[in-house]
From TrEMBL:
Subcellular location(s) of the protein: Cell membrane
Signal peptide: none
InterPro entries: MFS, MFS_dom, MFS_trans_sf, MFS_Transporters
Segments forming domain Major facilitator superfamily (MFS) profile: 1-385
Domain of life: Bacteria
GO molecular function annotations of the record: transmembrane transporter activity
Pfam families reported for this sequence: MFS_1 (PF07690)
Membrane-protein topology: Multi-pass membrane protein
Protein name in UniProt: Major facilitator superfamily (MFS) profile domain-containing protein
Species in which this protein is naturally found: Companilactobacillus bobalius
Length: 396
């Protein structure tokens, strides 16, 4: 029963890990509500949470070394509640919506960083692998439920879409009563002078942690380009409108959710090839979307994208605790979340630097780039080497 309570507490937090984007279905209504505000400014409501997440990811790892992770998670949930519910009552100024979006991002930064940490504390071995998969699945489930509800609630009054953040109130009480308080390692007073700085901890960290963080950065960078250009691609192919793009996005999320629930079994079958598998699935997805004008094949491409992302986002936080010691674990997880958020923020900027045209050309470029990454990892047996590093650490 205690393990069930822990699972409920952790997975309830996971429902909020993607809540920064749940208002996007009512962007057109918000643009109409603020006719004098540029559309790009309104769209920042969807991007500012990533900035908040990025900033928090830089500090939460260090905080987790001295403050129980449950308390930090509750702070994150409170931030989501405040940032999500204030616009229900105060929505006449766009600056309020932008500030609240940033506050939601701060909350997301806490919960998305701490969830894999909590899993690594309370679960070991295959149970941990299973929970990492469930974590990713519940990320997708929370996004699907909240985005769908936001679209329905905001159909008449756009600010009613913010009622979806009431889910965070339920999450707060589930975490408060279901999740036990984790212990923080006490510092030995006799060795206080040996206190290590953050930079020193990073210098001592296994090089494969940085390699995984780099891979996460590139994966998110290309997947963000996939999401941002999907509706443009559909328009260029003249196979549908924004409704089809929305359905395809949901179908991709469904693919990630199903893969997350099956992650423990997938890991048993291909545990030394998971990151390569993720890259190949994403490569296939991008090329299918680029080459095909058939709606059934577009659905296949979207589904493959969800599978590939789920495998990557479940594998990376599973491997990092294995590659790090207790002193390094929190910073390792922060590095993972930082890379995740940074990839999403800089994706349009980097593609703009290289003058990559939106739509078809973007899908071709990210397909080729993802294929190169997959081939490099296959050549160096990347996942196998990561797994072997973890085995060496465990045996020591």
């Amino acid at each position: 029963m205690s393990k069930l309570r822990v699972r409920v507490g952790i997975l309830s937090i996971a429902l909020l890990s993607m809540c920064g984007i749940v208002i996007t279905p009512v962007f057109s209504e918000i643009i109409q509500a603020f006719p004098k505000v540029p559309a790009t400014t309104v769209q920042m409501i969807g991007s500012l949470p990533s900035l908040g997440q990025l900033i928090i990811s830089l500090i939460v790892g260090r905080l987790a070394m001295s403050i129980p992770k449950k308390r930090l998670a509750l702070i994150g949930v409170i931030a989501v509640i405040v940032g999500g519910i204030v616009p229900i009552f105060w929505h006449s100024q766009i600056i309020v919506l932008l500030v609240c979006a940033f506050i939601v991002g701060i909350g997301v930064g806490f919960v998305s960083t701490l969830t894999p940490m909590l899993i690594s504390i309370f679960f070991k071995g295959e149970a941990r692998a299973s929970m990492m998969g469930f974590n990713t699945a519940f990320n997708s489930l929370g996004a699907v439920l909240m985005m769908s509800a936001a679209g329905i609630l905001g159909s008449k009054m756009w600010f009613h879409s913010y009622y979806v953040f009431l889910l965070a109130v339920l999450v707060f009480f589930l975490v408060l009563f279901m999740l036990p308080l984790d212990k923080v390692e006490k510092v030995d007073t006799n060795s206080i002078q040996k206190k290590v700085s953050t930079i020193d901890v990073l210098k001592q960290m296994n090089k494969y942690v940085f390699a995984i963080a780099g891979l996460v950065f590139l994966t998110i960078l290309f997947y963000t380009a996939f999401s941002n250009n999907l509706s443009i691609l559909i328009s260029q192919k003249q196979v549908g409108g924004t409704s089809l793009a929305g359905i395809l996005s949901s179908f991709g999320t469904l693919g990630g959710m199903i893969t997350g629930f099956l992650m423990a079994y997938i890991r048993k079958i291909a545990h030394k090839h998971l990151l390569e598998m993720s890259a190949l699935l994403l490569t296939a997805s991008y090329f299918v979307m680029f080459l095909s004008n058939s709606i059934p094949f577009l659905f296949i491409g979207a589904y493959l994208s969800g599978m590939g992302m789920c495998i990557a986002m479940a594998t990376a936080p599973y491997e990092i605790p294995i590659l790090t010691n207790e002193e390094q674990n929190s910073l390792g997880m922060s590095l993972f979340i930082f890379s995740n958020a940074l990839g999403g923020i800089v994706s349009p900027i980097i593609l703009g630097w290289f003058n990559v045209t939106a739509g078809l050309q973007t899908f071709l470029v990210i397909g080729i780039a993802m294929l190169v990454i997959a081939l490099v990892m296959i050549f160096f047996n990347f996942s196998k080497k990561v797994s072997n590093q973890g085995s060496v650490k465990t045996s020591n």
